[in-house]
Design brief:
With 252 residues, this protein is of the alpha+beta class. It is 17% helix and 39% strand. It is built from five helices and 17 strands. The protein is elongated and about 60 Å long.
């Protein structure tokens, strides 16, 4: 099996690569059959962004901290694990951000697209779904759209819902909402198109971030799930991502 190892810049990941490379070699990404990621969730997201256009499956081993998107670390019998792994297809969000100076910046997010206030003033954001105004003004620190895979990350920290992979929904989650004070967000169909309009962007500037792509001083942000882009992630049968997301909903 031809493998390209994508490693985090850490002693643990580099040590693991040195243990595996003599047995499996190191293929160029475009020649490999599979991308094996050694690191944490950030390293996996980095690899997804860097190599998703190659159409290769991704298998991660946790050499970071949480490692929710990766499998447990074991160097033994890697070939067997890869052959028995179960696949999950993830579709990222596509962001189109319009800025005050007239620029349009696009980005992809496998976890979430988040909008955050840039100064001490609370952000004021209008929300439309599929062209229909759903909230005239959300007064908040920010707001986000999260994928099911990303629902256990920043979305969960902001008290958003955990979403099973097969649910075909996205989480719309406010960040420290001030008004409406008791609004906790919404679940949207996966094919929904969400538009955020920034109210008074001069006085209340807002930034938008799609995973690694940050855009400051936005005036409008459009978000939808890109069904044309899909990445295959592989997981050990006893470390199935769908099952672990379900378990997260029952943790005390």
């Amino acid at each position: 099996m031809k493998i390209h190892f994508h490693c985090a810049d850490s002693a643990e990941a580099e040590k693991t690569f040195k243990e595996l490379e003599p047995t499996y070699g190191q293929c160029a990404p475009d020649e490999a059959e599979i991308i094996v990621v050694l690191g944490g969730d950030g390293t996996m997201l980095e690899a997804l962004h860097q190599y998703h256009t190659l159409g290769k499956p991704f298998y991660g081993m946790n050499r970071g901290s949480l490692g929710f998107l990766l499998n447990p670390y074991r160097v033994e019998r890697l070939s067997d694990r890869l052959e028995k792994a179960q696949s999950v297809i993830l579709h990222p969000l596509r962001m189109k951000a319009h800025t005050e100076d007239g620029k349009v910046v696009e980005g992809l997010a496998f976890n979430e697209v988040s909008l955050l206030r840039q100064r001490h003033n609370a952000a004021q954001i209008g929300i439309a779904v599929d062209g229909i105004d759903r909230m005239d003004t959300l007064v908040c620190d920010g707001v986000m759209i999260a994928t099911p895979a990303g629902s256990t990350a920043y979305n969960l920290s902001a008290h958003g819902p955990i979403i099973p992979l097969s649910a075909n929904v996205l989480a719309l989650t406010p960040i420290s909402a001030f008004r409406p004070r008791h609004w906790r967000g919404a679940l949207l169909p996966h094919n929904a198109k969400v538009t955020f309009d920034i109210r008074d962007p001069d006085k209340r500037p807002v930034s938008a971030t799609a995973d690694f792509t940050e855009v400051r001083h936005v005036t409008q942000v459009e978000i939808h799930q890109s069904v044309k882009i899909g990445v295959t992630m592989l997981f050990d049968p006893d470390h199935n991502l769908e099952e672990r997301i379900l378990k997260e909903q029952f943790l005390a």
